[in-house]
Automatic annotation (TrEMBL):
<comment type="similarity">
    <text>Belongs to the cytochrome c oxidase VIIc family.</text>
</comment>
<dbReference type="Pfam" id="PF02935">
    <property type="entry name" value="COX7C"/>
</dbReference>
<keyword id="KW-0812">Transmembrane</keyword>
<keyword id="KW-1133">Transmembrane helix</keyword>
<dbReference type="InterPro" id="IPR036636">
    <property type="entry name" value="COX7C/Cox8_sf"/>
</dbReference>
<comment type="pathway">
    <text>Energy metabolism; oxidative phosphorylation.</text>
</comment>
<keyword id="KW-0496">Mitochondrion</keyword>
<keyword id="KW-0809">Transit peptide</keyword>
<dbReference type="GO" id="GO:0005743">
    <property type="term" value="C:mitochondrial inner membrane"/>
</dbReference>
<dbReference type="InterPro" id="IPR004202">
    <property type="entry name" value="COX7C/Cox8"/>
</dbReference>
<keyword id="KW-0999">Mitochondrion inner membrane</keyword>
<dbReference type="GO" id="GO:0006123">
    <property type="term" value="P:mitochondrial electron transport, cytochrome c to oxygen"/>
</dbReference>
<keyword id="KW-0472">Membrane</keyword>
<protein>
    <recommendedName>
        <fullName>Cytochrome c oxidase subunit 7C, mitochondrial</fullName>
    </recommendedName>
</protein>
<dbReference type="GO" id="GO:0045277">
    <property type="term" value="C:respiratory chain complex IV"/>
</dbReference>
<feature type="transmembrane region" description="Helical">
    <location>
        <begin position="44"/>
        <end position="63"/>
    </location>
</feature>
Length: 71
């Protein structure tokens, strides 16, 4: 009975430590797998403004182009 108790304790301890999965960051820090640098906040802000600003401005620029276009 004592042997079974020891085996079950050892099994649960080994299972608990082996069931925890390591993180998926290959280099070990968050943002390492992103295509842009997130360490420089001003550069990141400029990239976000250009990316989202261009997507927001395109419909307005197209409407202006079509209204100015001569038929």
């Amino acid at each position: 009975m004592l042997n079974l108790k020891m085996v079950s304790r050892q099994f649960t301890r080994l299972f608990r430590t082996s069931s925890i999965r390591p993180s998926h960051e290959p280099e070990g820090f968050p943002g390492a797998n992103l295509p842009l640098d997130i360490q420089n906040r001003y550069k990141l802000t400029a990239i976000f403004i250009l990316f989202f600003g261009s997507g927001l401005a395109i419909p307005f620029l197209l409407v202006r182009y079509h209204l100015k276009k001569e038929v």
